[in-house]
């Protein structure tokens, strides 16, 4: 098998919690607590979990938008966390992020043409007539008219704005796109259009996606493999069909039992989890899911289960496996 495009090992991101008096560090919010995964070229890995599980922080940390607390990120075989200056600037052209809110992520004072051409201007790749033509081509590529370049973001619908965000992300011909809840701010009727566009663009532009979402049906629609996060850790990772038809981790089972996805395995009764997601400031000992797990055993509060391969690349972090 060829080398992965992205290889993440034991990545951690802790945020210090400070007292209001003297700003002393009084604790650590363990937003991402040692996650490992790799991305093959051309695939889409869905990263799914409840709100607050650390998936967005993981995406931002992978791309160095925020500095990690520990771990390694190798992109095209290069240690991304060790890059500085021009080398980092050059590497940044190869990965881009699409954010959740197309209303907040586009500068309302810039025209759509300026927004899409800005990355090329910053990186000095092309200018003038060539840049105008490239901008028009990118707009058409995402299903908008070339004359949209003259308009401002407020003149577009939510779905159209997200298309503009996608065109901007494509401006520097990236290899990797981290999409953080890219359709969750859109109407349900528009979500499928944007997801289908992202699927088409993946083939047209040889893209690799890390697709972050809380919505299992969205992840099911677009992903090749799926990683499930709970309280800062990946608890299960597998090929999509494998994970949806044969979930191994009790948390994944509970999520799937509540997801309205037709034609996915056999639906049993809905599994209701008791209690809320614990605070990442003080996660439970051992398996952090144990206070809510319907299958908890004596060992579970005592020992952290490692994410290990149960066969055919189906990974799970549970003492039952
Ligand atoms: Fe449940 Fe124990 Fe597995 Fe954690 S390790 S998911 S508590 S059975």
Order of helices and strands: EEEHEEHEHHHEHEHEEHHEE
Structure summary, number of beta strands: 12
Distance between the termini: 26 Å
Number of helices: 9
List the helices and strands and how they pair.
Layout: E1 6-18, E2 25-39, E3 44-48, H1 55-62, E4 70-75, E5 78-79, H2 85-92, E6 95-98, H3 112-122, H4 128-141, H5 158-170, E7 176-180, H6 188-204, E8 208-213, H7 216-222, E9 225-230, E10 233-239, H8 240-245, H9 250-257, E11 308-309, E12 315-316
Parallel strand pairs: 3-8, 3-9, 6-7, 7-8
Antiparallel strand pairs: 1-2, 1-4, 4-5, 9-10, 10-12, 11-12
Helix pairs in contact: 3-4, 3-5, 4-5, 5-6
The chain binds iron/sulfur cluster (SF4).
Residues 249-250, 287, 289-290, 293, 295-297, 300, 305, 318-320 line the site of iron/sulfur cluster (SF4).
What is the gist of this entry?
The chain has helices spanning 55-62, 85-92, 112-122, 128-141, 158-170, 188-204, 216-222, 240-245, 250-257; strands spanning 6-18, 25-39, 44-48, 70-75, 78-79, 95-98, 176-180, 208-213, 225-230, 233-239, 308-309, 315-316. By secondary structure, the chain is an alpha/beta fold. It is globular.
């Amino acid at each position: 098998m060829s080398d992965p495009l992205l290889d993440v090992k034991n990545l951690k991101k802790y945020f210090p919690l400070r007292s209001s008096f003297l700003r002393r560090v009084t604790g650590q919010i363990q937003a991402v607590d040692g996650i490992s995964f790799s991305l093959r070229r051309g695939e889409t890995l869905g990263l799914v979990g409840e709100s607050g599980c650390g998936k967005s922080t993981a995406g931002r940390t992978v791309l160095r938008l925020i500095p990690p607390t520990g771990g390694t990120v190798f992109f095209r075989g290069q240690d991304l966390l060790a890059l500085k200056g021009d080398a980092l600037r050059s590497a940044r052209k190869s990965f881009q992020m699409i954010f959740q809110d197309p209303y907040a992520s586009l500068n309302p004072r810039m025209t759509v043409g300026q927004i899409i051409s800005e990355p090329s201007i910053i990186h000095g790749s092309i200018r003038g007539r060539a840049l105008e033509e490239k901008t028009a081509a990118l707009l058409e590529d995402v299903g908008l008219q070339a004359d949209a370049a003259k308009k401002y973001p407020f003149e577009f619908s939510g779905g159209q704005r997200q298309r503009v965000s996608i065109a901007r992300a494509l401006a520097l011909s990236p290899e990797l796109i981290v999409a953080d809840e890219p359709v969750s701010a859109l109407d349900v009727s528009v979500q499928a259009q944007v997801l289908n566009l992202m699927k088409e663009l993946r083939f047209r532009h040889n893209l690799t996606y890390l697709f972050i979402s809380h919505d299992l049906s969205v992840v099911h629609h677009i992903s090749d493999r799926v990683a499930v996060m709970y309280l800062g850790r990946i608890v299960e990772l597998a090929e999509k069909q494998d994970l949806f038809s044969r979930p191994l981790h009790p948390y994944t089972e509970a999520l799937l039992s509540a997801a309205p996805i037709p034609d996915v395995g056999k639906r049993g009764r809905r599994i209701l989890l008791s209690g809320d997601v614990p605070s990442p400031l003080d996660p439970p000992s051992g398996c952090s899911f144990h206070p809510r797990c319907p299958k908890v055993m004596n060992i579970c509060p005592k020992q952290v289960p490692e994410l290990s391969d149960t066969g055919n690349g189906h990974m799970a972090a549970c003492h039952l496996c």
